[in-house]
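Hello again,

I reread your note about wanting to compare the complex against the isolated chains. To keep things tidy I'm splitting this into two emails, and this first one only covers the full assembly. Below are the input lines as submitted, including protein chains and any nucleic acid or small-molecule components. They are followed by the predicted structure of everything together. The single-chain runs will come separately.
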Amino acid sequence: MEFLVASAIGLLTAAGIYLVLRLRTFPVIIGTSLLTYAVNVFLFASGRLTVGAPPILRAGVDSYTDPLPQALVLTAIVISFGMTAVVVVIALGAYLGSDDDHVNDAPEEEGTP
Amino acid sequence: MSLFLVVALPFLGALLPGLLNGAGRKVCAGTTFAVTLTALIGLLSNLPALLNGEVVQARVDWLPGLGMNMNLMMDGLGAFFACLILGIGLLIIAYARSYLSRNDNMGEFFTYLLLFQGAMVGIVLSDNILVLLVFWELTSLSSFLLIGYWKHLPEGRQGARMALTVTGMGGLAMIGGMLILGNIAGSYDLSVILTQREAIQADPLYVPALVLILLGCFTKSAQFPFHFWLPHAMAAPTPVSAYLHSATMVKAGIFLMARMWPVLSGTPEWFYLVTTAGLVTMVLGAVIGLFKHDLKALLAFSTVSHLGLITMLLGTGTAFGAMAAVFHILNHATFKAALFMSAGIIDHEAHTRDIRRLGGLRHLMPVTFVIATIAALSMAGIPFFNGFLSKEMWLEETTHTYLFGPEWLVPALATFGAVFSAAYSFRYIGHVFLGEERHDYPAHPHDPPAGMWLPPAFLTVLVVVIGVAPLLAQPAVKFVTAAVLGGVEEVPGAYLAIWHGFTPALFMSVIAVVGGLVLLALFTPLLKLWDAAPRPEAKTIFEAIVEAFARLARDTTQTLHNGAFTQYAGILALTIVAAGSHAWLTGSDAGPARDASPVNIIAALGWLALILATAFLVIKHRNRLLALILMGIVGTVVSVGFAFFSAPDLAMTQISVEVVTIILLLLALNFLPDTTPSESSLGKKLRDGIIALAGGAATFVFSYHLLLREAVTTPISEYHLENSYKGGGGTNVVNVILVDFRGFDTYGEIIVLGIAALVIFALTETLLGGPVRARLLNRVPDKPLAGDRHPLMMVVLTRVMMPVVLMVAVYIFLRGHNEPGGGFIAGLVAAIAVVMQYMASGFAWATERQRYPYHGIIGAGVLVAGLTGIGAWFTGHEFLTSSFGYFRIPPMEEFELASAAAFDLGVFLAVLGAVMLSLESFSRLARRAHVEDSEYAMDIDPSREDDAAATATALNPGKEG
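Full-complex prediction:
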């Protein structure tokens, strides 16, 4: 099971990095979203994997999974939505303003400061 | 008066001249004078205690954790320097009142001057080296303002910049040295450090500390090779030069060397560094000074030379040297301030400082002549003036100093320097005041008003009094010397006198005076020789170095920061992988401690779905809609995975966020092209692929490694699990952590989320207010639109579902403290309920029915959460401490009320508002000019029904709605 989760994190990261390195805004946004998944799952996994022991206190149960990474990841998920939205509006503004959705600045002409 | 007040007065007083600028020049200067006088009187009020043998102290803890406390102390040395700073400050203020013209902003000038004065007094009275460093940097900054006071002069600006660069760099070095010193001594208090001579000198870090501190002192006191900034600082108004270069700024380095004398001196390192630097500076300054034609440049190099003399005396490490240094500090301050002021008078009256255009002024300016002559003769070392006394002590000391090479080397070099020193002093008299009266002065010179000549005249009186009756100064000099020596050595028994018999020093003095006269007689041929000799120009070298650094910085920045974000991302990814790999390869590993859990078939299927979706996503990412759908699959698998691995809260959050994210990206895709063109070459794709695989492999290995090992230290989660119910009153530990244990964190998060939403709103508004608006309004959709914009089934369904979904949100919210759920998830679910209405029934219809602006909802959320936190104050707890209790209202069951629920309500509102504001902003972009906003839901585009009706609509738009 650990192998499955770790390989999923690795693949999401690789796909995320590859898409972030594309030249247009939309794939970059998708790439950052994939990286977000990878980071969130990784943070969550730092509490180690446990099946069937949610951190909801029950009488007579004394084994629970680590709740702290969950709390941290929960806010991270919500914040990442906010950040994605900001990036998207910036990308949209750039595209609508100049009809160009390239991520990089055009290379400067030789000789210009 | 408390020492705090003495130090604070100039700083507080600095406000006044600036404010009183409108009240006139007299008030301005008078206030500054009064402030300085009060500080001086306050200082002197501590003298009786000092003379009783006490060290006056004032202590207040500032940052005790760092050992940085506002501790002040006044011993003999501090008092001596503070008196010089404030006393000469008074004379300078009086002088500047007459010197500054009506075009100069006097309030500004005096404000800078007082700031500088306060910083200097702070340096000499500090008992904590960290506080001393703060004042040290303040003098660099305020002297920058003073030197560059005439902002219209390029020399002023360049000189100020050079002074700041050189002294600022020295200050940085000194910070390092002081920190080392404090670490060795175990305290940053000078009074403690000064008792640790043996420990400090035995420490292996003594030499680095010494070099760093000396760098600070040498740059400040213009010692070779950092002497070049001082002459360039002469572009300042003359009162500034007189103040900074006689008694204050450049003496700060000297002061620090004297202050640190008991702990740093006496070692070979100290001796060779300080003595050599001092001697070289002394000779170099004297030789260059003779050939300068600008009066102030001549004085500047003579200052450099005299500072070298004092430095050398401190460097010898003998008690006699220290006493001579103290005495010369006093004498130099008196005659040099007078000389600078006389140079200012000549400049002010004759409108030139060029010696070649002056001469024969003795009859035109008799008062100035007397003042300048007395001061210059003192500088030359003529008996019956104070300069003679300390200079002879210096010559005496050189005969006992052996530095590299033969015994006669130091005395010979010193005599050589003294010859030039006498020569430039005589030149100051001979070429300016003596000789033929000329008729081509730029302005007809005459003596200045009393306000300008009285201050230097007062100083020349001191010059003569000390020079004739040195016994008067002896007690003070010995008292200060005792403070410098700090008990390490006995105060020397030698007394200050004009006549010591036929000593070697007397012969050297005679040689210096005679040699000086000879040099002046031969001045014209010597000058030709000097002008012909090649000399390195310090300013050119300095500017070349600065330019080289600037170019290096510019090139580095432009190479790394060239606007290619893809490149940044690639470099970032590779750097992280490289740093991680380094740690991985050099670290040690204990081997797996956990057994891998068995693979479950459902988990394997989910994994497969995720792998396939991600792989397809990368391959097919050019089709943007498909990419979005595949991303949705990934997100869904991730949320199912959360649920599988015991994280129900995360699963619910992830799935809700997934929904709103996909809606958001769909809205964005509405405006963006549907496909991504293929632009990268195969080579570039391969390169990116390798970077991506490196990153992926690194995270895989790291995650796998982590998952098979236990935490390095015990996680604090045990505490959370134990106290969740007892202390937080909830059984859902994740929610209790969010609203209670880490409530402050969550509070910050909702504020960030709110800010993000407001940023989106603001950017959308900007877009709609600019040229983009026209383009958006006239946009022709690039894909066919659905015939019925608001499908009947969807409208009916969403409206029926709305109350149900809201009910679910309320349920999730209420159970959140004890079961999976809470404000975050409830907020997202409620947002989805509202967004469905926008999607199904249209923007106009939904906006019409929206009662509260989303900004307000965000604000209300943050406010509710904040007020809940503040509420804890009223029960005597800290911010955001939650409390709860159990209540029973018959006939209901007993139920729980927790303040955390109110906080969670704030979270709910903020999340709802933020999500809605973001999505709504995007939808506003989508409204177009030629499509009417429909008030009616379930509208059908008739153009699909028949062409006739379509024509009718086109002719009569709006009727169909």
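For quick reference: Chain A is about 65% helix and 0% strand.

B.
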